[in-house]
Amino acid sequence: MVQLTQIAHELIRDFIKTGDLVIDATCGNGHDTFFLSELVGESGMVLACDLQQLAIDATKDRCRERKNIDYHLGDHAEVLQSLLEKNQSSVSAILFNLGYLPGGDKSLTTQGPATVSAIQLGLRLLKRGGVLSVLAYVGHPGGIDEANAVESFLTKSIDSAELHKIHWPDESRPATSPRLYVVCKGSLNES
């Protein structure tokens, strides 16, 4: 069975070019950061964020050969807010992998309100033709509430803004299955 992370990578690959600026808003163990680093190449930049030093360290270890990554320890909403304050609005892709750090403290999880705030900020940072991917895991306390908050926010944003669905969770999925949301800002032909 194909993992949702692989599906997310395949869906966003065509939106990212060499030299782009991209964000891994929850770098965890560094898998997405490494993938993004390869796509943007030496002339691009990956901003890798996480609330836990353990995650930053794991990502640095996985990506130690990569020179195109800038690490940010802190809440993803705060990191994205600081980018907005610097008038940065040319981000090609933002990835969120929600839940807890695999192999880490399972009581430390992303939270719905902070995640929705970060997604809202992320959409402002995305350039037209940029893509946002959110993989929400629901099997931990608070996970379903967070996924529902993300889905509600993105649905309202799609209905009221220039966002287009690229991928949405299957309605027939089991309630405890992870959920992948991928949206594009602007026309799908602008990437």
UniProtKB/TrEMBL annotation:
InterPro entries: MnmM_MeTrfase, SAM-dependent_MTases_sf. CDD domains: AdoMet_MTases (cd02440). It holds the Pfam family rRNA_methylase. It comes from the Bacteria. PANTHER family: S-ADENOSYL-L-METHIONINE-DEPENDENT METHYLTRANSFERASES SUPERFAMILY PROTEIN (PTHR35276), TRNA (MNM(5)S(2)U34)-METHYLTRANSFERASE, CHLOROPLASTIC (PTHR35276:SF1). This is Uncharacterized protein.
